[in-house]
Amino acid sequence: MRTNIILLVFSFVLMKSTIAQTYLTENTSSRILAGNKGLNIGGYAQIDFNHSLTDDHSFKNSKLDVHRLVTFFGYNFNEKTSFVSEIEMEHVVELYVEQAFLSHKLNHGLNLNAGLMLIPMGIQNLYHEPPTFNGVERTNIDKYVVPTTWREIGVGISGRLASYSVNYEFMLVNGFNGYSNGQSKFSGSSGLRSGRQKGAESYMTKPDFAARLNYYGEPGLSLGISAYVGDSESEEYNDLDLDNNIAVLSADSTIIGINMFGIDARYNKEALQLRGQYIITNLSNTEQYNIKSNSDLGKRISGYYTEIGYNLLNNKDTDEELIGFFRYENYDTHAEVDAPTIKKESYNRTELTFGLGWKLAYGAMLKVDYQILSNASDSDNRSAKLNLGTAIWF
Fold this sequence. Notes:
The chain is mainly β. It is built from six helices and 19 strands.
């Protein structure tokens, strides 16, 4: 059933379209790099209202949150060399640097990049500005499977193979912090998310590899393939005596091998919008890791979603859009486990989301959606959420 859904979406995206390709490929860094010489300033914001609905006659307070407020500063020194940065405040009190890297154009199709960069995995880790996706909140696949917003420090190359209509990106970066202060950073419920180092005094034993290829040869179509390969980091390796076999074996048990692979597609044709994504992560050494750290990390994490949207104002004489959409999403952080860890069906989660997005102007949007949430341990016991939001990007 899942395979059939994925194949259905990808068969749709093979059709041609008249929508400009920049609609699918523009994000914050691309705006800065394509901007005028000198200083470029912009930002985005997401302000949410969330209300959980129950059927047990209990009441839950609503939550209102300035979820994120981001300011980006870029500087184009000349036509070849640029600096990109994003400074993000979450929930009013949490401050992060989301990007900070230098980019230098070596030739027409090749750029050298170095600094804190987004890992090129999936759709929303690269295109996460609120007006670029339907629904108030980001998809949970891009939280528990791809730990968006996922960024690390490293060096890489990017560019375009124009004759093949392909964009590419390759990078070497530090890995996840999988074990520190005598505790595991990975878990069955949230996967690898807590291991993101985010450029905050990151450490590294050896670099991990990330890559993405994106095909844009058909109007309105974007097809992506992403990969991430490497090992997690561990503080157990700091000042490790390599002649002490017991200490080396103990340190080895805190390392997780990570192989993540993703495919995604986006397609726009006139009023129609289609998108889909599938991500699978295979982890090694989970048995030793869980025994050492008393954790329950799965050996396989996977997820996918399919989404259809339609602009209800397409035939009206207006630049505004009213996008109705429906999304089916499933993600499982215990898709497969190693003994003695017991597989938890509650980590196999399904979400149905439908709603409306009113684009008042390019970069300004009001959103409302309704979510039905369930998991495989008790599929008949569902919960629901009503979400409203404001999305800004300039």
